[in-house]
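Milestone M4 deliverable, item 7.
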Amino acid sequence: MKRYLDGPTSPKQQIMFEILGLSRKKTRHRWTRIGNISEQGALSPAIVVAGEKFSNTLAESRSHLRVVTRVSHPFTIEDYPVTDENFCLMGIPCLRVATKNKNELRQIFANFETEILTGPLHNFLCCKGLAMDLLTALSKDVGFDFGVYLVADDKDGRELENGQWDGIIGDLRSGAAHIGFGSISVTQSRKSAIDFSSPYYYSKFSFLVATTKAKIKLSAFLEPFSWKLWIAIFSALHATAIAAAIFE
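Output delivered:
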């Protein structure tokens, strides 16, 4: 959508475009204005992600998002940092947490930013793999900062009997995490609970079976039963025929 800052008939026309974000409210999606862009630059008074408001300008600051994942080779691989230096030789820093509470996770990441690397509910680790490489590249292209943590129950997510969700999907629905990144299979029930991006990996399953012999023996019809059972069958047939002939 475009607007004219000085009016459509003004000799000094400046075209301004509105920046719209697609937000989800209950079961419906709606477009929400999050800023505008013109010749003077881009301006966004606020961006809302997973129910949290980030007040900033697009040109001056970046959003910091919590990303949840789980260990799944080769997408997300858990590794340990160098003990003395507390840095990752490969991969990116991540946290192993023991909570799914939104407020506790906020505090954990706030402590982590102040270099409190371990605590009662978290440990400092390194995460590497295909998903982590893709996440790093995406953050550079889109322009956001992130912190990664491994989901406490180590599950992708399924709907429970009470209507709640566990795993990564549960953290996304509660607002504990802003983005779920990893090898999460797209199913119909999960699509009704969260929004998926376009798939970046397709897996295929194959079945291996033994090859059949090319030549079939003439005695193949006898193989279903043992030779003792065949003798019993033929003996019973002959005995029945003899008995029928005698009594007729």
